[in-house]
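hey
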């Protein structure tokens, strides 16, 4: 019985430490959905220039703004570099 309690306490302490460490340190930049969405947007701009199919700038800005706002809404952690 004592070993069971000890094991539970050890697991609980480990889980709490992991959560606290994650909150203090944030997440790495390469886990950021917003970062990758902006990289994809940059690649799309380069592709537009290369292939000549260009959307109006206003449409691009509205789309990127909506994507970023949506991703910010579902994101909770801060980024650490």
């Amino acid at each position: 019985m004592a070993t069971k309690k000890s094991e539970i306490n050890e697991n609980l302490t480990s889980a709490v430490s992991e959560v606290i460490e994650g909150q203090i340190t944030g997440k790495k930049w390469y886990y950021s959905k917003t970062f990758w969405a902006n990289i994809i947007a940059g690649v799309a701009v380069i592709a537009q220039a290369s292939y000549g199919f260009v959307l109006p700038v206003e449409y691009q800005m509205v789309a990127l703004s909506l994507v970023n706002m949506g991703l910010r809404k579902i994101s909770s952690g801060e980024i650490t570099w």
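The chain has a mean pLDDT of 82. Residues 2-80 form one domain.
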